[in-house]
Amino acid sequence: MRTEQEMYDLILKVAREDERIRAVYIDGSRTNPDAPRDIFQDYDVVYVVHETESFINDRDWTQRMFGKILYMQRPDEFAELFPGEGIDIIKSYGWLMQFADGNRIDLHVETIPTAKEGIFNDTLRKILLDKDGILPEIPESNDAGYHVKKPTEKEYSCACNEFWWCLNNVAKGLWRNELTYVQDMVNHVVRKQLEKLLSWKVGLLTDWSEAVGKSGKYMYRWLPAEDWGQYLATWFSCNKEEAWEGSLLMCTLFDRIAKEVGAGLGYEYNQVEAENSFSYFKHVRTLSADAKGVY
User: Fold this and answer.
1) Among residues 145, 179, 208, which one ends one of the domains?
2) At what angle do helices 191-206 and 153-175 cross, to 10 degrees?
3) 154 and 136 share a domain?
4) pLDDT under 50 in the chain at which residues?
5) How many domains does the chain have?
């Protein structure tokens, strides 16, 4: 597996030898001094170019330049499937490449105007090369743009309401034995609200000065062991009884954390809503399979 230094040397060698490439910057975890280092970290690279078309039309240039590719994705080629996302391959185009030696590069080419306009959109960015001095000076790379942000009272109330309201979908899904639906509702809707509340607790504990990472993967660094352990215990398999127990634990944890966060922020927690929703959830669990009414 090529070393980090070998990869950076190659990335810059390609840029220096190709007159179409006028500057290079990187972003992502490799620019973050606080991010853990491991063998799976990819290289998020942007080549700043005059035009993208010649790169797009040469289907083999990435393999010629960077080595044997096991498999790759050209996500911008699916632009027509996502019409609302504003993808414009004339301005920017990307290749996500997994190499045979284990390294991965997420490479983009961006036109000069696109790069100059967007380079400030992320605080985790570092300029490696600028042949013509075309890029503006940017602050030293830091993760400030990813710090947990203090929620407004409306955001807090919305997260609590979303959790307790959508819990009824979990209940009916479990009663119906629709376990794939339950998994989808819990993991993509309900649990996401708990993740928000736990991240806000981290914000309160750290004075809003830390980042918890994608999907809250770093929350364990600041949360009490009890909180983190209970959070992990809310995950369950497609076993009905396990799902009931995991969901009940999730409700208990959410109620406690929501009260703590609400008190810390000075926001009112709707205790009546929480109690009524949780009571309904527990009641549905007691219903027989042939019940003719909820109550």
Assistant:
1) 145
2) 150
3) no
4) none
5) 2
Say what the pLDDT of residue 269 is.
Answer: 98
What pLDDT is stored for residue 77 in this prediction? 85
Q: How far apart are CA 119 and CA 282, in angstroms?
A: 50
Shared domain check, 152 and 141: no
Backbone φ, ψ for residue 193 (5° rounding): -70, -40
Residue 71 vs residues 2, 54, 100, 235: alpha-carbon distances, Å = 17, 21, 9, 32
Of 128, 124, 134, the C-alpha closest to 49 is 134
Amino acid at position 63, single letter: Q
Which pLDDT value is given to residue 143?
87
Bridge-based pairing state of the strands 104-111 and 43-49: parallel
Alpha-carbon distances of 104 from 3, 89, 92, 143, rounded to whole Å: 12, 22, 19, 22
66-93: per-residue pLDDT in tens?
999 999 999 888 877 766 667 789 999 9
Q: Which of 90, 115, 98, 105 is nearest to 30 (CA)?
A: 105
Measured CA to CA in angstroms, residue 211 lies from 26, 29, 51, 191, 230 at distances of 20, 12, 35, 19, 21
Please indicate, yes or no, whether residues 207 and 262 belong to a single structural domain of this protein.
Answer: yes
* Helix ranges (DSSP H) in 212-239: 225-233
pTM score: 0.90
Listed residue (190, 6, 32) closest to 102, CA to CA: 6
Report how far residue 257's alpha carbon sits from residue 247's, in angstroms, rounded to the nearest whole number.
15
Q: Could you tell me if 184 and 92 lie in one domain? A: no
- Domain boundary (89, 117, 145) is at 145
Same-domain status, 139 and 29: yes
217-267 pLDDT, tens digit per residue, is 999 999 999 999 999 999 999 999 999 999 999 999 999 999 999 999 999
